[in-house]
Amino acid sequence: MSNRENWTSKIGFILAAAGSAVGLGAIWKFPYMAGTNGGSIFILLFILSTFIIGLPILIAEFLIGRRGQADVVSAFRRLAPGTAWPIFGFVGFALSIIVLSFYSVVGGWILSYLVRSVSYLFGGGNPQDFGSLFDSIIARPGEALLTQAVFMFLTIWIVSRGIKGGIERASKWMMPMLFIFFIILAIRSLTLDGAMEGIRFMFVPDFSYLNGETALLALGMAFFSLSVGIGSMITYASYLPKDENLMKSGWSVAVLNIVISILAGLVIFPAVFAFGGSPAEGPGLVFVVLPAIFESMPLGFLFMLLFFILMLFATLTSSIAMLEITVSIGIRNKYERRRGAAFLYGLIVFLVGIPSALSFGVLSDVKVFGLSFFDLADTIVSKFGMPIGAFFISLFAGYYLSRQITEEELGGSGFQASAWRLLVRYVCPLAIILIFISTIWG
Length: 442
Description:
single chain, mainly alpha, Hydantoin permease, 17 helices, 0% strand, SNS_sf, transport, YocR/YhdH-like, transmembrane helix
């Protein structure tokens, strides 16, 4: 057995964990979820869900991962030998494959737009090109599968190089660039005429959207954007040294996630309102509305290119975390197997994602429970898998692990540790249950 890898620095771990959290959740999903669910109310519920429910569970995953010093299945086996708890490690394994299967499809769409952005920038664009571009891209089976495969290859290549040489190195340069691009694009968006309507949409509450369904969606968004409930943070934390402050790391990741999500809103909503678009466009918001807006701006194709580079970076930082869950389980600390495992599980993810990639083309008429394969995968993870996984992680950390273990990992029995224990034992499980009930009976 080879020596277990570790992060080489605190900032490397935080950037990698934040990269896993930010991803498509902040840039693609958060804007369209906020746009279709009342804007400011959804954002407020998302922030509250992040700090009150998501952050305690994030810290719980950090605790389990570092204490277990192993992949998500082995961590549960070490901390709860002879029990059924490792089952949730395998559930996380399955959910990570489902997440990445449709993540990789969206990653393929981003690559399609990135190539076209370069072409438009250097060859000139036709203002009519964006009318049906998104529909044509997602409906072409060859392009959808090819770009999905290329995106998965990039993910596999990074993960195959390990924690230090692959994931940490990639995160250290992609995350700062992502933040810089966000600032540039947000400034440009806020200087547009009519941008104030987008600000009002984001920050002036519309209480007609305050209901159980919106709360569940916001909670699911918090879990999705923090990558909790499936084991990615358990996996990343397993590579942490014992002197790392888990509380500070958790707060850093949660705050960075919210900041990036708000920045994404400041990039998208002012521009959408300034050009008369609809914030309720749905999943196609950043692919249908924004390119048309960029095309109308001076140097618009340059800003469009920057935006899709930003999206690619964000998507990759999340996808490598999803693939690392499966790879770490597959190699069980035998690091000489990493490259082969990365390609094997990457191939499995690609194959599982084929129905999602074809959901808008040749399989567009095929529905399961009234949903396309793409929407079904998203629903399984966001509405059910992540909240349920987070529920059991909170029970495990709050009730199964002893107070001594949690205090050792969290640095004592001070106020923060006591508050975390209260939240993870009572508030987090109860909030998840109540929101599910309100949705079922609403």
